[in-house]
Amino acid sequence: MDTLTALFYLFAFVLTYAAFRVITAKSPVSAALHLVLAFFNAACVWMLLQAEFLAISLVLVYVGAVMVLFLFVVMMLDINLDSIRQGFWKVFPLAGVIGVVIALEMAAVLMSGFHLTEAKAFAPEVAKVANTKALGIDLYTNYLFPVQIAAVILLVAIIAAIALTHRAGRKDSKAMNPGEQVKAKKADRLRIVKMDAVVEQPSPAQPAEGGQA
């Protein structure tokens, strides 16, 4: 067994363990941290496959942005785990059937094997171009139309999210008018009020013990 094979089995084992802990951990924070570990090991596997761009994108986008945001949301919200776990056994049969179907599909794909002879035939031509450049050429030539459709869908999703967040009539909206902020003057921000000094009256002396003042 060479070094690359040993590293692959190591990363695959840690990735499988982290994925299992994601769905079995009771704490959402623990599940999110195990998902970060799974992303890191998946990026290491892609590095072994010489897919450097995908590996760095996985670390920067998912680990550096998505999972950090998810952790902030989980820690800021007071999630009632008991209410989430209710009804688990009702949906367990359907979830089990879907899991079995996915496992059979993956087994059918993996058991058929990969055609390495065709890949070796194109290996010298692919090696002449960098990984990132080859991916960019493929995306903007053969998959230009799907990339443009995905960009339009993401743009519509961003506009919809902004519209839902800043919809009119929200009571908890804290939006401010920049024009009104610019027009504000010093007199509007600070007002000095003159008040007479208040002197507290001394309290009467308490009578001493035994009736003596």
Structure write-up:
- The protein has 213 residues and is mainly α.
- Among the domains are: 1-78, Up-down Bundle (Four Helix Bundle (Hemerythrin (Met), subunit A)); 115-165, no CATH class.
- The chain has ten helices and no strands.
- The protein has helices spanning 3-24, 28-48, 52-76, 81-85, 88-111, 116-127, 131-139, 144-165, 178-183, 186-189.
- Helix 1 (3-24) packs antiparallel against helix 2 (28-48) and helix 2 runs antiparallel to helix 3 (52-76).
- The protein is elongated.
Write the SSE topology.
Layout: H1 3-24, H2 28-48, H3 52-76, H4 81-85, H5 88-111, H6 116-127, H7 131-139, H8 144-165, H9 178-183, H10 186-189
Helix pairs in contact: 1-2, 2-3
Please supply descriptive tags for the structure shown above:
Four Helix Bundle (Hemerythrin (Met), subunit A); mainly alpha; 213 residues; 70% helix; elongated
CATH fold topology of the domain at 1-78: Four Helix Bundle (Hemerythrin (Met), subunit A)
Largest sheet: none
Give me the Rg, rounded.
32 Å
Proportion of helical residues = over 70%
